[in-house]
Amino acid sequence: MDHPDSVLKFSLGLNGLSFDIDNQHIELKQGLSFVESNSISHGVIDELAIEKMIYFIEEIIESKPLRNLNISGVTVTSDATMTQLSELFFSTKKQISRIELEYGFNDFIERLSYYTNQVSPDQLYIFTYFVFIREMMHHLRVEEIQII
Fold it and tell me: 1 in a domain, yes or no?
């Protein structure tokens, strides 16, 4: 499937992050595990953990070449974690707008213990992924995520 220029294709993994746009490839060694290990204490995601995640994610996004990317507002991913996130928060939709994501994120924050109990302890990275996606939307001016 062809995408117009300036569509950001991303993959957020436990051990690294990758971003592709306009034949430009950016690979970051700090992945979701880095964010988790610096944010979550005793395997519990609480409001303090979320605040720490946001801090570390902003550091990653702001300090890297990601800031200079000319993104059209649409991003695409084939990450399995994004599919899981869509199942958990977005009725398995393949296109999620910034507004929908923000509603889902606010619901997540209001019902943290409910959502964290919906996944096994070894899948808490799903929520780190969610926080990362939300921060990408804010800092990189992403308007929609498409799951391909």
Answer: no
Rounded CA-CA distance 54/40 in Å is 12
pTM of the model: 0.92
The CB density around residue 32, as the number of other CB atoms within 10 Å, is 24
10-residue averages of pLDDT along the chain (148 residues): 69 95 89 94 91 95 79 92 96 96 96 93 93 93 94
Q: How far apart are CA 5 and CA 49, in angstroms?
A: 36
How confident is the model at residue 109, as a pLDDT? 95
Q: Which of 48, 47, 57, 28 is nearest to 128 (CA)?
A: 57
Residue 13 lies in a domain: yes
CA distance 101 to 5: 24
Pairing relationship of beta strands 144-147 and 24-28 according to DSSP bridges: unpaired
Is residue 33 assigned to a domain? yes
The bridge status of strand 74-77 relative to strand 144-147 is parallel
Q: How many domains, in total, are found in the chain?
A: 1
Q: Report yes or no on 2 lying in a domain.
A: no
Domain that holds residue 41: 8-147
Dist CA 38 CA 133 (whole Å): 18
CATH number at residue 106: 3.30.420.150
